[in-house]
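Whiteboard transcription, Tuesday session. T.W. wrote the structure tokens on the left side:
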């Protein structure tokens, strides 16, 4: 049976899509290869959010093709996902060895196309069409065998985004918002819980807009909060997370969900993008700095130990030093536990790409460095402040860097390392934090739930 190697770029949605493709191929008898060299099929699941992500995947593909050629190996190679969607046939025109280009609504057809190519029935396939109902096609999971049970899982609840932030390519690579049904999602989560998964992260580009068009508000609760409540009912499931929400989706119903749903972990990744109202408007974000700060204080009131992270763009067209300082001051005011900073990268067919006053690289670099410095200093002191506290972690497995250590995650989404062994995998246990490192905590099992 053919072996397949899949490499994933970009966000958790892409990770999830790759996993579903892998599961689909394994079910058809394919084996999973650990490196591209020996694989019969190499698939790159791509990201288009920034130019750098596209360049990485293109270079990787050139390398893969070059190696296969020099070793005179017959290898089927393909691009999946966002860059496949936005560039389509152009990818084969540029790299004629590429056999398959599969868009973001076509993941579920990977096996069918690969079979046809491998059997020589088709030479090249480019399929980037829109497909009704494809949001419900990302269902298959690749849970490890009994010896290594998966503890956490991602569940895709919706595809696409209608927000059209002026810098963002996602609405064109992922299409219109399409939500799965609550019963369909609950059934998938229940099945995962039955297989030993304790923590589920609900995924989408803008999860707070889940079901907006299909499900009316009920008892003041949005469709997304209705979904959280339904998932919360599942026996055996211990923890619920979601990513990514949009600030405008934090109504009081969602804040209250943190109060009455104990399985909902006290952590939130809420992209703010900028601290300047002028820029938020140019970005078409749909909220003000004040509204964002209001959400943060409500969430902290509901769950004082909540862990908060965000995304920020520096160097958006026309960003002045003053605008940037507003972002710096917002970061200082909120004291995020983590912030991912991105240098603005013009994306094709987005309004911001043709705005006046594109900033030079040096300005972006400089602001990136200054903001990073502020974020890291503030985050370090927040991590330091947790030393001495006791927290519950869910043990995920051995640490990648040091397999003698186990790694777990706190409810507030901190990585906690401790000296343990494989028997701790999958356990919820309490640890005392003894030390803080860079975006990592070190713990001592205070009370081990044996
Ligand atoms: N809502 C999505 C956002 C995807 S893009 C989510 O689920 O995370 C992830 C982050 O990349 C955005 O929050 C933004 O900070 C950054 N980003 C998006 N487009 C960008 C661009 N053109 N240049 C630089 N950063 C960008
Ligand atoms: Fe992109 Fe804005 Fe949607 S960042 S994914 S258009 S909420």
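and on the right, the sequence the group agreed on:
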């Amino acid at each position: 049976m053919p072996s397949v190697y899949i490499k994933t770029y970009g966000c958790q949605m892409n990770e999830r899509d790759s996993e579903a493709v892998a599961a689909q191929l394994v079910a058809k008898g394919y084996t999973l290869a650990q490196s591209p060299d020996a694989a019969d099929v190499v698939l790159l699941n791509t990201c288009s959010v920034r130019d750098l992500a596209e360049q990485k995947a293109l270079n990787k593909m050139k390398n893969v093709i070059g190696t296969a050629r020099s070793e005179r190996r017959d290898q089927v190679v393909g691009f999946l996902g966002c860059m496949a969607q936005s560039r389509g046939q152009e990818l084969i025109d540029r790299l004629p060895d590429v056999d398959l280009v599969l868009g973001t609504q076509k993941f579920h057809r990977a096996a069918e196309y690969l079979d046809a190519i491998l059997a020589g029935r088709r030479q090249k396939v480019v399929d980037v069409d829109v497909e009704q109902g494809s949001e419900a096609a990302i269902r298959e999971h690749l849970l490890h065998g009994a010896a290594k049970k998966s503890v956490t899982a991602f569940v895709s609840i919706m595809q696409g985004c209608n927000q059209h932030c002026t810098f963002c390519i996602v609405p064109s690579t992922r299409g219109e918002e399409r939500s799965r049904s609550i019963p369909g999602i609950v059934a998938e989560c229940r099945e995962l819980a039955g297989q030993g998964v304790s923590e589920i992260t609900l995924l989408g580009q803008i999860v707070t807009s889940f079901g907006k068009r299909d499900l009316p508000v009920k008892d003041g609760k949005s469709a997304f909060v209705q979904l959280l409540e339904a998932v919360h009912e599942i026996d055996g499931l211990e923890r619920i997370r979601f990513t990514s929400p949009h600030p405008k989706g934090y109504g009081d119903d969602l804040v209250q969900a943190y109060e009455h749903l104990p399985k909902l972990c006290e952590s939130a990744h809420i992209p703010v993008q900028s601290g300047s109202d002028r820029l938020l408007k140019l970005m078409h974000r749909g909220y003000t700095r004040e509204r964002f700060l209001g959400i943060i204080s409500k969430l902290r009131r509901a769950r004082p130990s909540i862990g908060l992270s965000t995304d920020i763009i520096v160097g958006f067209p026309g960003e002045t030093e003053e605008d940037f300082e507003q972002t710096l001051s917002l970061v200082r005011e909120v004291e995020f536990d983590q912030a991912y900073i991105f240098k603005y990268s013009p994306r094709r067919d987005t309004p911001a790409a043709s705005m006046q006053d594109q900033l030079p690289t040096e300005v972006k670099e400089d602001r990136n460095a200054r903001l990073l410095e502020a974020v890291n200093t503030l985050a370090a002191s927040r991590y330091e402040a947790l030393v001495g506290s006791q927290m519950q972690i869910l043990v995920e497995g051995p640490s990648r860097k040091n397999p003698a250590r186990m790694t777990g995650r706190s409810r507030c989404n901190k990585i906690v390392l401790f000296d343990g062994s494989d028997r701790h995998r999958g356990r919820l246990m309490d640890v005392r934090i003894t030390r803080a490192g860079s975006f990592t905590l070190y713990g001592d099992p205070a009370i081990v739930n044996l």
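Someone added at the bottom: DSSP finds 13 helices and 19 strands in the chain.
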